[in-house]
Amino acid sequence: MNKVFNSFDEAVSDIPDNSTLMIDGFAGPGGTSQNLIAALRNLGSKNLTIISNTAGLASVIGFGTLPGQTPVDIGVLVENNQVKKVIASFPVSPSPSRPTAFEKAYAKHEVELELVPQGTLAERIRAGGAGIPAFFTPTGVDTRVSEGKEIREFNGKKYVLETALKADFALIRAYQSDRLGNLVYKGTSKNFNSVMVTAATISIVEVDKIVETGAIESALIDTPLLYVDRIVEIKENNER
Where are the domains of the chain? Predict the structure, then answer.
């Protein structure tokens, strides 16, 4: 099966309304699939549920892009009224005086939020990829995070039951891929991308460079081809 797509628009063209997507977002947009997000904005799919570490920070932080570029992240989907719900651990701006698009929409009751501690978010995604339906964790016990959830005691300590997270699509950023979909990450793309790519039905990856099969040393592969469905190379004539 040919996994290499010619354009970002083509790669996301079948994402329907009401989809659940995992999109990396951590330490600015550098590790975020900016071109795929821009293509999804252009597609206009509605009522999306987005699973991410943040709910979009690029517009208030403004780093992680090349000179002259406008950073793109989940915030552009919120601004375009495409997002129904966000599941995230840091959905607010680091600057209270500069609220994100999500914060503004949330204040108007236009979007829903499920707040998840960061470690729990990563583990819920990992569990989804590993086929583990749920797990117990001490994080969030006796806080609003645990309201309405099952609590059990193990060895005299309370734990809250958290369920796995899965998605219909994952929009992933990686540094390099071969034509079969073996991935190598670099810099901030090393955070949530590698776990999200395992937990989606269809994983779509934008990469700086596609190399021939066998060109990546096996020991350097971060994500094996099994988890990758579509690949788009970032080229000058293919950027948002």
Answer: 8-135+165-238
The Cα 100–Cα 91 span in angstroms is: 8
| Most distant CA pair in the chain, distance | 60
Contact (Cβ atoms closer than 8 angstroms) between residue 32 and residue 69 = no
Burial of 221 (0-12, 13-18, 19+ CB in 10 A): middle
pLDDT in tens, 198-207: 999 999 999 9
Percentage of the chain exceeding pLDDT 90: 77
pLDDT tens for 161-203 read: 999 999 999 999 999 999 999 999 998 888 899 999 999 999 9
Which tokens in the block code for residue 192? 């949530």
Rounded to 5 degrees, φ, ψ at 156 are 80, 5
Residues 6 or more apart whose Cβ sits within 8 Å of residue 39: 7, 8, 9, 11, 12, 240
The residue among 40, 42, 2 whose CA lies nearest residue 23 is 40
Tell me which CATH homologous superfamily contains domain 8-135+165-238. Glutaconate Coenzyme A-transferase (3.40.1080.10)
- What distance in Å separates the CA atoms of residue 9 and residue 5, rounded to the nearest whole number? 9
Query: Is 118 in a helix, a strand, or coil?
Result: helix
- Tell me the CA distances in angstroms from 182 to 44, 194, 219, one per residue in order: 30, 11, 11
Is the pTM higher than 0.85?
yes
Report the amino acid identity of residue 66: L
How far, rounded to the nearest angstrom, does the alpha carbon of residue 114 sit from its chain's CA centroid? 15
DSSP 179: T
